[in-house]
Amino acid sequence: MIVVQGDFVFKAGHREAAIAAMIAVAEGVKQEPGCIRYHFYADLADPNKFIVYEEWESLEHLNAHGSADNPPPHMVTFRKANEGIRESASVHFMTAERIER
Asked: Which strands form 35-42's sheet, in the order they lie side by side?
């Protein structure tokens, strides 16, 4: 399983537009093959910061989701919606395995 965690900071005054873009992209991503989980969370200390948490069945599924050559339409829309309103982003990719306790 591939886990993705990212931090997105949006420019002040653009919180509502950012939320709308995140809701729209999450709906599309959750329908993609191999997507186990895809959620955005608001940072409690910074109203302009959001965290994305994703789980993917495989690296191949994640690569199809993030394709630069042939991205899913909802990703194209999300990237365009972020132009001019996103201040910064950092994304981390990890492999994980489930354990039973």
From this structure: 35-42, 49-56, 2-10, 86-95
CA–CA gap between residue 64 and residue 58 (Å, rounded): 10
Determine contact, residues 29/67, Cβ cutoff 8 Å.
no
20-36 residue pLDDT tens: 999 999 999 999 999 99
Contact 99, 12 (CB under 8 A): no
Structural domains in the chain?
2-95 (3.30.70.100)
Name which of 54, 61, 51 is nearest 37 in CA terms.
54
Rounded (5°) CA angle 65-68-73: 55
| Beta strand segments in the chain, E | 2-10, 35-42, 49-56, 86-95
